Amino acid sequence: MIAESVRFALSGISANKMRSILTTLGIVIGISAVITLLAVGAGTSNMIKDQIGKLGTNVLTVNRALATGGRTTGGSATGTRTQSTNLTLADQQSLDDPVLAPDIATTAPVVQAQAITATLGTSTHSITSTLGTTPAYFGITNFTPTAGRLLNDADAGQAVVVLGNSVAVDLAANVSTLVGQTVSLNGQNFTVAGVLAPKGTSGLNDPDDVAMVPYTTAQDKFTGYSPSLSSIQVQAKSADVMTQAQNEIQQILDARHQVTSANRDYQVRNQAQVLSTATTTTQTLTILLSAVAGISLLVGGIGVMNIMLVTVTERTREIGIRKAIGATRGNIVLQFLVESLIISILGGIVGILIGFGASSFEIAGIKPEVQWWTVWLSVLVSAGIGLVFGIYPANKAAKLRPIDALRYE
Amino acid sequence: MATPIPAPAADAWAAPVPRRAPRPVIALDRVRKVYGQGEAEVRALDGVGLTIKRGEFVAIVGASGSGKSTMMNIIGCLDAPTSGRYFMDGIETGELDEFQLAQIRNRKIGFVFQSFNLIPRTRAVENVAMPLAYRKVPRRERHQRALEALDAVGLSARAGHLPSQLSGGQQQRVAIARALVTEPVLLLADEPTGALDTHSSEEILDLFESLHARGRTIVMITHEADVAARAERVVRMQDGNIISDTGAVR
Ligand SMILES: Nc1ncnc2c1ncn2[C@@H]1O[C@H](COP(=O)(O)OP(=O)(O)O)[C@@H](O)[C@H]1O
Ligand SMILES: [Mg+2]
After folding, report:
1. What is the pLDDT of residues A196-217, one digit of tens each?
2. Smallest CA–CA separation between B99 and chain A, in Å?
């Protein structure tokens, strides 16, 4: 009887193809939206996890806090305190203290040179991030050379540069040929000491679009002898002592800057924490968007119910005939339920395929990853919609009295 | 269902059937059907008794509103009487639930309607096979028996046609094939020629006569005298009562 119901239902669906397709569309859109959004969410969280791995889980960054310094609490409206809002090389060196900061492994100062363009012959590349730093930086940030070498202590003050992979590939087809060549950074000649191995794009920004020069060279050629650093990179001894390391940094710098936790003029950030906050945000966003997609599924389900009610009304006479020739209530329920199930599951399957199709594209730098559980869930949900929204119309059809149904015009 | 009938009247039907006299196909015992209540009350059937034996060809005639369709609905197990009893092939229908009534309709009755009532967009052979689908006959056998039934009404050449591709007379013959495919004990026809031209009507009535000659029990409702004249027995109705019966057994 099931096979028979399927056959009857299929003929019912094909009798009104356009309408069936339009009804299915509601489910198709809902399911494909859910699949794609969850895939994007998964892709984003993959990307963030990746980034955490690349950054290292034991890196802390000390930044200048721009706005905090002048602000005071309560009545001291004059704000007479003269604080150093700068982060200096001396600050950085003070953190390399095995007694006061036993949990800190190494530190590196960072100055940032703005708007640097690298030129080699006719090739140019505008570098996103040009840093002046010390050799310790490479160890902290997990950069390794793919050609040549990293910076060493002997490079201090020399016009040498280590190029990030994205910069290098723009300047030369074979990056290893760059080593030893002279490139111009904003018109100043630098010898390429090495090229970094790629970390791979992480979507939001390209970690390989960088160049590093010795700290003193950067001051010399780009930033001038301002005592201020852009940031200090700190490596804790392990990922387990991040909190202790952070406390030690704050104790040392609070004392040096004569500030308290209320008016700190700097900020210590744990990259892994920043990213896990980002993960949570992404997840919340994914859930919200999926809820919207879920609502569109609900609307699709109501569409199915609507069309099934129209179908039942349209086919009242047919129902009467079937009952007269011996169809039981169960037969009629089954026929219409199977019809709404087929419409919904078909919509679900097409939605899944479209979801896969949409997820094969990179969306805003994120590579979506379809989760298999969402596929099974979609099949279940669409079947559920067919059942839930089909049962009422099917029951309505089955309850029709044959004489009333036969009289219906 | 409550049956406020005194005991003796039931004896004629409930008593064991003698061997020589087979049980009647239809036995109506003081059947009443009342529509509406109070002021609006209509007695569509007012205590009708009627017995139709196996192999009879009966025409039920009467003016419009005399209760013919109401009687047909009750005989066809499509509707239940307000009171009184109806035995279908010896089975008291008042005691049956909806599921069992559906089975009675499927196994014992073949319907032919004025407006053919074929299922649209469904090929003739599938229309004919449909009652068999509701009694779980295998697909192959169903198809075979449907073709045979179509052959019996002279339409085997049209088996693959849709109802919309057939003339009125042809559609009615498909409907008769559908009614006969289950080998029912009763062929129940409500104004079977009402929507047909004279020529097609003749064809249908000829078909009925030949079915009758081969022993089928046929009950046909009509308001046309010349159609009724083709039947073996004529039951005339008026205001919910039988006023004459050419073959009355009682
Ligand atoms: N569903 C109904 N509700 C109320 N009155 C009805 C209904 N069906 C039939 N009747 C009434 O019952 C009487 C008999 O009707 P019907 O059996 O259709 O007669 P016929 O078929 O002989 O024309 C008529 O007076 C009709 O108005
Ligand atoms: Mg009538």
Report:
1. 888 766 556 677 888 999 988 8
2. 6
Taking only the tens place, the pLDDT of each residue in A213-238 is 998 888 888 877 777 888 888 888 88
Q: What is the DSSP letter of A88?
A: B
CB contact under 8 A, A323 and B76: no
- Can you name the residues that pair with B91 across neighbouring β-strands? B88
Domain boundaries, chain A: 2-51+276-407, 69-264
The pLDDT tens digits of the residues spanning A44-53 come to 888 777 777 6
Q: Whose CA is nearest to atom 26 of ligand 1?
A: B65
- Give the count of alpha carbons within 13 A of A74, CB side only: 3
B12 pLDDT band, cuts 50/70/90, is: very low
Q: Name the residue with the closest Cα to ligand 1, atom 21.
A: B69
**pLDDT band at A391, cuts 50/70/90?**
very high
Q: What is the DSSP string of A49-74?
A: HHHHHHH-TTEEEEEE-TTTTT---T
Whether A103 contacts chain B with CB within 8 A: no
Nearest-by-CA chain B residue for A327: B134
CB–CB of A252/A244 below 8 Å? no
| ipTM here | 0.88
Rounded to the nearest angstrom, the distance between the alpha carbon of B44 and the centre of ligand 1 is 6
Q: Which ligand is nearest to the CA of B36?
A: 1
Residue A371: burial class (beta carbons within 10 Å; 0-12, 13-18, 19+) = middle
Q: Confirm or reject CATH 3.40.50.300 for domain B54-82+97-245, answering yes or no.
A: yes
